[in-house]
Protein backbone atom coordinates (compact mmCIF):
# COMPACT_ATOMS: atom_id res chain seq x y z
CA UNK A 1 0.00 0.00 0.00
CA UNK A 2 1.23 3.50 -0.80
CA UNK A 3 2.13 5.49 2.25
CA UNK A 4 1.28 9.06 3.19
CA UNK A 5 4.23 11.20 4.20
CA UNK A 6 5.01 14.34 6.11
CA UNK A 7 8.23 16.02 5.01
CA UNK A 8 9.76 18.43 7.49
CA UNK A 9 12.66 20.80 7.23
CA UNK A 10 14.87 20.79 10.35
CA UNK A 11 16.15 24.24 11.32
CA UNK A 12 13.21 26.54 12.04
CA UNK A 13 10.73 23.65 12.24
CA UNK A 14 12.12 21.12 14.75
CA UNK A 15 14.38 23.62 16.44
CA UNK A 16 14.89 27.37 16.59
CA UNK A 17 17.19 28.33 13.74
CA UNK A 18 20.28 29.65 15.49
CA UNK A 19 22.44 29.23 12.37
CA UNK A 20 24.54 26.11 11.75
CA UNK A 21 23.32 24.28 14.84
CA UNK A 22 25.75 21.43 15.50
CA UNK A 23 25.66 20.80 19.26
CA UNK A 24 22.71 19.05 20.89
CA UNK A 25 23.02 21.26 23.97
CA UNK A 26 22.25 24.32 21.82
CA UNK A 27 19.05 22.83 20.43
CA UNK A 28 15.89 24.70 21.40
CA UNK A 29 12.76 22.79 20.37
CA UNK A 30 10.07 24.68 18.47
CA UNK A 31 6.77 24.97 20.26
CA UNK A 32 4.22 22.55 18.80
CA UNK A 33 6.65 20.17 17.08
CA UNK A 34 5.87 17.16 19.26
CA UNK A 35 2.08 17.63 18.95
CA UNK A 36 2.54 17.90 15.18
CA UNK A 37 4.57 14.67 14.94
CA UNK A 38 2.10 12.87 17.19
CA UNK A 39 -0.89 14.06 15.09
CA UNK A 40 0.53 12.72 11.83
CA UNK A 41 2.01 9.54 13.30
CA UNK A 42 -1.47 8.66 14.60
CA UNK A 43 -2.72 9.01 11.03
CA UNK A 44 0.00 6.63 9.80
CA UNK A 45 2.13 9.18 7.98
CA UNK A 46 5.81 8.56 7.37
CA UNK A 47 7.79 11.26 9.17
CA UNK A 48 10.74 12.35 7.06
CA UNK A 49 13.23 15.12 7.76
CA UNK A 50 14.83 16.84 4.77
CA UNK A 51 17.54 19.30 5.71
CA UNK A 52 20.20 21.37 3.98
CA UNK A 53 23.40 21.10 6.03
CA UNK A 54 25.99 22.97 4.00
CA UNK A 55 27.85 23.68 7.24
CA UNK A 56 29.41 20.23 6.77
CA UNK A 57 31.15 21.04 3.47
CA UNK A 58 31.78 24.63 4.51
CA UNK A 59 33.85 23.09 7.30
CA UNK A 60 31.85 24.75 10.09
CA UNK A 61 31.16 21.38 11.69
CA UNK A 62 31.72 17.72 10.94
CA UNK A 63 29.51 14.92 9.69
CA UNK A 64 29.91 13.36 13.15
CA UNK A 65 28.52 16.57 14.73
CA UNK A 66 25.52 16.36 12.43
CA UNK A 67 25.00 12.70 13.41
CA UNK A 68 25.20 13.57 17.10
CA UNK A 69 22.45 16.20 16.73
CA UNK A 70 20.35 13.80 14.63
CA UNK A 71 20.74 11.08 17.23
CA UNK A 72 19.71 13.50 19.98
CA UNK A 73 16.62 14.54 18.00
CA UNK A 74 15.62 10.91 17.42
CA UNK A 75 16.28 9.94 21.03
CA UNK A 76 14.23 12.85 22.39
CA UNK A 77 11.27 12.18 20.08
CA UNK A 78 11.37 8.50 21.02
CA UNK A 79 11.46 9.37 24.71
CA UNK A 80 8.50 11.76 24.47
CA UNK A 81 6.34 10.00 21.87
CA UNK A 82 7.51 6.35 21.74
CA UNK A 83 8.39 6.53 18.07
CA UNK A 84 11.05 8.26 16.00
CA UNK A 85 11.36 9.79 12.55
CA UNK A 86 11.31 7.23 9.75
CA UNK A 87 14.38 8.75 8.12
CA UNK A 88 16.58 11.84 8.08
CA UNK A 89 17.72 13.08 4.67
CA UNK A 90 20.44 15.71 4.56
CA UNK A 91 22.46 17.56 1.96
CA UNK A 92 26.04 18.38 3.06
CA UNK A 93 26.87 20.39 -0.08
CA UNK A 94 27.47 24.10 -0.57
CA UNK A 95 25.48 25.96 -3.27
CA UNK A 96 28.67 26.12 -5.37
CA UNK A 97 28.80 22.32 -5.60
CA UNK A 98 25.54 22.46 -7.57
CA UNK A 99 24.32 19.07 -6.33
CA UNK A 100 20.88 17.60 -6.95
CA UNK A 101 19.94 17.25 -3.28
CA UNK A 102 20.23 20.79 -1.93
CA UNK A 103 16.82 22.46 -1.66
CA UNK A 104 15.28 24.20 -3.67
CA UNK A 105 16.05 21.08 -5.71
CA UNK A 106 13.97 18.04 -4.91
CA UNK A 107 16.68 15.35 -4.77
CA UNK A 108 16.00 14.42 -1.17
CA UNK A 109 12.28 14.02 -1.88
CA UNK A 110 13.16 11.81 -4.86
CA UNK A 111 15.37 9.69 -2.63
CA UNK A 112 12.53 9.30 -0.13
CA UNK A 113 10.22 8.20 -2.92
CA UNK A 114 12.73 5.52 -3.86
CA UNK A 115 13.13 4.39 -0.24
CA UNK A 116 9.44 4.27 0.65
CA UNK A 117 6.41 3.60 -1.46
CA UNK A 118 5.01 7.11 -1.02
CA UNK A 119 1.68 8.21 -2.42
CA UNK A 120 2.66 11.76 -3.33
CA UNK A 121 -1.01 12.84 -3.37
CA UNK A 122 -1.06 12.30 0.40
CA UNK A 123 2.02 14.28 1.28
CA UNK A 124 2.76 17.52 3.06
CA UNK A 125 5.86 19.63 3.31
CA UNK A 126 6.57 21.99 6.19
CA UNK A 127 9.43 24.44 5.92
CA UNK A 128 10.52 27.92 6.90
CA UNK A 129 12.38 28.81 3.69
CA UNK A 130 11.05 29.52 0.25
CA UNK A 131 13.50 26.89 -1.00
CA UNK A 132 11.46 24.31 0.94
CA UNK A 133 8.32 25.29 -0.93
CA UNK A 134 10.15 25.17 -4.27
CA UNK A 135 11.53 21.68 -3.54
CA UNK A 136 8.01 20.51 -2.68
CA UNK A 137 6.64 22.10 -5.85
CA UNK A 138 9.10 20.11 -7.97
CA UNK A 139 7.46 16.89 -6.75
CA UNK A 140 3.88 18.17 -6.79
CA UNK A 141 3.46 17.78 -3.06
CA UNK A 142 -0.11 19.02 -2.69
CA UNK A 143 0.05 20.60 0.79
CA UNK A 144 2.84 23.03 1.55
CA UNK A 145 3.06 24.94 4.80
CA UNK A 146 5.43 27.84 4.99
CA UNK A 147 6.36 29.09 8.45
CA UNK A 148 7.47 32.41 7.06
CA UNK A 149 9.60 33.62 9.97
CA UNK A 150 12.00 35.33 7.59
CA UNK A 151 9.20 37.53 6.19
CA UNK A 152 10.03 36.75 2.57
CA UNK A 153 7.64 38.00 -0.11
CA UNK A 154 6.51 35.32 -2.54
CA UNK A 155 3.48 34.54 -4.66
CA UNK A 156 1.73 31.43 -3.40
CA UNK A 157 0.05 28.84 -5.56
CA UNK A 158 -2.86 26.57 -4.73
CA UNK A 159 -2.16 24.31 -1.75
CA UNK A 160 0.52 26.63 -0.35
CA UNK A 161 -0.24 28.12 3.03
CA UNK A 162 1.57 30.63 5.18
CA UNK A 163 1.47 29.74 8.87
CA UNK A 164 2.64 31.66 11.91
CA UNK A 165 2.80 28.68 14.29
CA UNK A 166 3.07 24.90 13.89
CA UNK A 167 -0.34 24.58 15.59
CA UNK A 168 -1.90 26.23 12.53
CA UNK A 169 -1.34 22.99 10.60
CA UNK A 170 -3.39 20.97 13.09
CA UNK A 171 -6.15 23.60 12.97
CA UNK A 172 -6.10 23.41 9.18
CA UNK A 173 -6.57 19.64 9.17
CA UNK A 174 -9.10 19.52 11.99
CA UNK A 175 -11.16 22.18 10.23
CA UNK A 176 -11.05 20.30 6.94
CA UNK A 177 -11.94 17.00 8.57
CA UNK A 178 -14.91 18.69 10.30
CA UNK A 179 -16.14 20.40 7.15
CA UNK A 180 -15.99 17.10 5.24
CA UNK A 181 -18.05 15.49 7.97
CA UNK A 182 -20.58 18.36 7.85
CA UNK A 183 -20.91 17.94 4.11
CA UNK A 184 -21.46 14.24 4.53
CA UNK A 185 -24.05 14.71 7.29
CA UNK A 186 -25.95 17.35 5.29
CA UNK A 187 -26.03 15.20 2.21
CA UNK A 188 -27.29 12.12 4.02
ZN1 LIG B 1 23.45 18.18 -1.90
Question: Explain this structure to me?
Answer:
The chain has 188 residues and is of the alpha/beta class. Helix content is 36%, strand content 20%. It has five helices and six strands; from the N terminus they run βαβαβαβαββα. The protein has a six-stranded parallel beta sheet with strand order 3-2-1-4-5-6, with helices on both faces. Zinc ion (ZN) binds at residues 91, 93, 99, 101-102.
Quick structural overview:
By secondary structure, this protein is α/β, with parallel strands linked by helices. It has helices at residues 33-42, 63-81, 107-115, 130-138, 167-187; strands at residues 3-8, 45-52, 87-91, 118-127, 143-147, 160-163. The chain is built from 5 helices and 6 strands, in the order βαβαβαβαββα.
Amino acid sequence: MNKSALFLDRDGIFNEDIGYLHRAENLIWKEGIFELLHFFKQRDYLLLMVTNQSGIHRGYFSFADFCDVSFYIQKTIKHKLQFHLDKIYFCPHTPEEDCLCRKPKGGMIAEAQRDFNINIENTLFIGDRWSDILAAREYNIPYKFWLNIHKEQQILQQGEHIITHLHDILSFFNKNICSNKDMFDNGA
